[in-house]
Amino acid sequence: MLFADTLKRPIELQLVVDRAAPYKEVFHFHPGAEIFYIHEGAGQVIVEQHMYEVKSGSLLFFRPFQPHYQQMEVGPEQPYVRSLFKYSPGYFSEFLKPFPALYKFHDYLCHSDSVLQIQQLPAPEKLDYWVRDFDRRFRLRPVIDDLERNALFLLSFFQYIQPIWQSYSEADVQQPTIDPFVVRILKWIDEHYQEEFQLEALARVAHMSPNHVSYLFQKTTGKTITDFLTIRRIKQASLLLQTTALSVQEVGERSGYPNFSYFCQAFKKHMGMTPGQFRSQPPFRT
Question: pTM to 2 decimals?
Answer without folding.
Answer: 0.73
